[in-house]
Amino acid sequence: MNWNDACAELTTLASANAAVDVNGVEYDSRRVQRGDVFVAMRGGNADGNRYIDAALTQGAVAIITDSRDAFDRVRREHPAVGAALVQHGRRALAEISASVMGHPERRLALSAVTGTNGKTTTAFLLESMLRSAGRTCVLIGTVETHVGDEVRGSPHTTPESRDVLEIFGDGVKAGATEAVMEMSSHALDQERVWRLPVDVAIFTNLTQDHLDYHGTMENYFAAKAKLFAGVGTPPPRIAVLNADDFHFADFSEAARDSRLMTYAVSNHVAEYRVEDVQILPEETRFRWVTPGGSVPIRSPLTGRVNVYNLLAASCAALARGLTMEEIAVAAEGLKQVPGRFQVVPAGETGITVVVDYAHTDDALRNLIALARELVRDRGGRVITLFGCGGDRDRTKRSKMGRAASEGSDLVVLTSDNPRSEDPDAIITEVLTGARETSTDCIVEADRAAAISRAIHSAKRGDIVLLAGKGHEKVQILREKTVPFDDVVVAAGVLKEMACG
Ligand SMILES: CC(=O)N[C@H]1[C@@H](OP(=O)(O)OP(=O)(O)OC[C@H]2O[C@@H](n3ccc(=O)[nH]c3=O)[C@H](O)[C@@H]2O)O[C@H](CO)[C@@H](O)[C@@H]1O[C@H](C)C(=O)N[C@@H](C)C(=O)N[C@H](CCC(=O)O)C(=O)O
Ligand SMILES: Nc1ncnc2c1ncn2[C@@H]1O[C@H](COP(=O)(O)OP(=O)(O)OP(=O)(O)O)[C@@H](O)[C@H]1O
Ligand SMILES: N[C@H](CCC[C@H](N)C(=O)O)C(=O)O
Ligand SMILES: [Mg+2]
Questions:
Q1: Among 88, 108, 159, 280, which residue's CB has the most CB atoms within a 10 Å radius?
Q2: Do 132 and 326 touch, CB atoms closer than 8 A?
Q3: ipTM at complex level
Q4: Could you tell me whether strands 273-279 and 284-290 are parallel, antiparallel, or unpaired per DSSP bridges?
Q5: Domain final position from 297, 313, 332
Q6: Are 244 and 264 within 8 A, CB to CB?
Q7: What range defines the domain where residue 461 resides?
Q8: Taking the mean position of all CA atoms in its chain, how far away is CA 63?
Q9: Shortest-distance atom of ligand 2 to CA 364
Q10: Would you call 404 helix, strand, or coil by DSSP?
Q11: Residues 201-219: tens digit of each pLDDT
Q12: Is residue 337 assigned to a domain?
């Protein structure tokens, strides 16, 4: 595409035209290929403008920059290179990418999920429902990316716009008509999702997380609320909101220009509700009550939080034109979401071992409450293993410590991606909360050893919760990142027990 045409949708402060053709767009100099436009933007860690020369050496033919100095320098030193000076790097990245890639976002009906917990699960459920009804979908989220039947890795929950648009483009080529994506608060705040037209926006819940990044709950809320105002787009056509959430009124206000679909387990003002809820070890059943009638729903996902996720996904599926009957059929065929209440086969041990991604105090409380419910009849104990991520919200650590020790019979404190921090120092912060109760607490910073101790502490009838890492396949330490998978480690311990 010709550089001038590519720039047509950019709001530039100044531009220098050049007779170049552009093939692609990159925001990271290390990925630039011959013929690309390099979008140089200032980030929290690095300044992309420092990498302009590297990008040109790798073959960039045009530069979009958010720095006047960088723009002037490119014009002076590289007159044959296309250049544009913009106010907002990430917005420009989205605009130029959409333009160069031929606007794949206009050819997909996009459903976007935000909230503290339940985004991945709700997005998986919605995609499964749409697929079950015969639609071809793109899915973008924490665990994996789907392009029709193709499964790809996911480096981020919500990638940069350029990467989202590339995936959308591949989806369109594969015949997709729908896209479902998680929109993290980081991505909404940074506007990685600029100009993505959202048809159905879904809110799961808002509790504390990510205050290292947002600073206050007000800012965290404001980031999530951006989805409902539209990020460089008109507001979503439909907003699916959790009426049981403490912040429901605020989200209703934020979504005032959309048609609301409200769902709830408790709140009777919600339009979409449940009756006769039965949470069983292997499945959940309820009657889904809607303004258009009711239908029995039966799903292999268990736990109260999954009633919410099923409700949110079902409302969104309805908004996307599925019938209630199609949704009920899809719910029955739902598959395990990797690392979300995933039971590790425990042979004849009589112990239940569960891997889950709970990494906030709210998620831990819900997870432990479900475990308590499941062991109640058999008189089993709840043993909870978890850690807190390094270089992440420090203020949630003691709260998670308290939540785990309040609900469990035994807590095993360990490491969960300590990143640049000292694992023992993180554990000390968690302990301040854990010590507010009298629950026994084992401290073992080595996660594999801790999993072994947790499982060996269990007796027949007990449940062992391995929380925080879910689907993750690595442990991020200060010096290195090592392969690590809770499911694999737990399976190894259980196998040894069976042999010994
Ligand atoms: C805090 C945060 O969101 N950071 C993300 C953000 O970083 P940033 O804006 O500070 O960018 P930067 O690293 O300073 O770099 C600035 C620019 O220089 C460029 N650069 C940099 C180095 C180089 O050699 N060449 C080069 O061109 C970069 O590509 C970038 O365009 O943009 C970067 C480029 O996309 C991301 O890699 C980075 O993710 C970091 C690694 C991260 O950990 N992000 C997490 C917190 C995150 O975003 N998580 C949420 C989900 C959270 C949840 O699940 O609840 C997510 O959506 O994934
Ligand atoms: N609706 C819900 N309400 C509260 N907690 C939930 C809900 N759904 C799931 N959880 C808990 O939160 C954990 C993470 O769920 P999920 O991965 O679906 O959320 P997420 O919002 O995508 O998280 P992340 O932002 O870290 O990617 C689950 O393992 C479970 O313990
Ligand atoms: N995706 C989220 C949750 C990660 C949970 C836990 N495993 C951690 O590393 O803190 C994050 O990056 O903050
Ligand atoms: Mg997620």
A1: 108
A2: yes
A3: 0.97
A4: antiparallel
A5: 332
A6: yes
A7: 342-498
A8: 31
A9: 31
A10: helix
A11: 999 999 999 999 999 999 9
A12: no
